[in-house]
Amino acid sequence: MELDLTPKLPKQVYGGDGGSYFAWCPEELPMLKEGNIGAAKLALEQHGFAVPRYSDSPKVAYVLQGSGTAGIVLPEKEEKVIAIKEGDSIALPFGVVTWWFNSQETDLVILFLGETHKAHKRGQFTDFYLTGSNGIFTGFTPEFVGRAWDLDEGTVKKLVGSQTGKGIVKLDAGFKMPMPKSEDREGFVLNCLEAPLDVDIKDGGRVVVLNTKNLPLVGEVGFGADLVRIDAHSMCSPGFSCDSALQVTYIVAGSGRVQVVGADGKRVLETHIKAGSLFIVPRFFVVSKIADPEGMSWFSIVTTPDPIFTHLAGRTSVWKALSPEVLQAAFKVDPEVEQSFRSKRTSDAIFFPPSN
């Protein structure tokens, strides 16, 4: 059966006055189920509040747009109230309870990528809401709720029945939410637009990698992530994950072309990609991208906490390591052609600006 790697846009799952929740569907993007990957997006309007919930999957959250407040409660820990803004990445392990709030006029948009190996449904997240019309209180009888929290019947009815919203609600403009604490960001958030660059190629591109060193919670979610930005017409070198990891890529901004090559030298994807689309590169498949005139940026997770990539162009590529005789025999070319091939791309760059 041929793999369908076509990039897809998400579909709205639910929403209301306060915002909407979108998700990528495994039926439309089969690699989600194949790779046990979940992908979703939360968009909150002004005063939109995503009520407290937990998930059946570990995730990485990336703030695509706007600013707001996040509440995070790790198991048996105190609540962290964090100011979030565009470029922030947050690792969300199993068992973490979160809520999200937008007080600003600009919509707050957050991307969620994660693994679904232990999820109820392969290829998609299932959230469990603590409040609202589909919250856990609604499933228990008033007797159980009253006994568990030592409440009288009247209080139980108010507690269970007052919030009729589902997942996302809109708060009154004057309602005061908890104020974020600057110290709460430490260890929970890494801003990929402000963090030290792991790769910086003049007129080529830049990379920030999330790993266990700069965001320790990455080790608990079990996979790493990165933000890549390439300049106009630049190319991201063909490469693959050499530790059997999947690459899940969301186009944050700009547009460009992508090619993916799999087994037997077969090109399995050749398409134009644009902001908002998501695609998945299978294990060991080789991928390369070229940006359009406005450049292109993407946020990816790789299904291992400290990913290792092999690039097939540049000074550190495998071609430079192989002996000349091996290349001559493998390509069936004379020494002159082999030397011409070897002498190109002598820098460590993984991004190549357009030739002048």
From TrEMBL:
Transferase as UniProt keyword: no
Example GO molecular function: nutrient reservoir activity
Pfam families: Cupin_1
Signal peptide boundaries: none
Transmembrane residue ranges: none
Keywords assigned: Disulfide bond, Seed storage protein, Signal, Storage protein
Boundaries of every Cupin type-1 domain copy: 3-157, 195-339
GO biological processes: seed maturation
CDD domains: cupin_11S_legumin_C, cupin_11S_legumin_N
Function: This is a seed storage protein.
Protein family (similarity comment): Belongs to the 11S seed storage protein (globulins) family.
Protein name: 11S globulin
Organism: Brassica oleracea var. oleracea
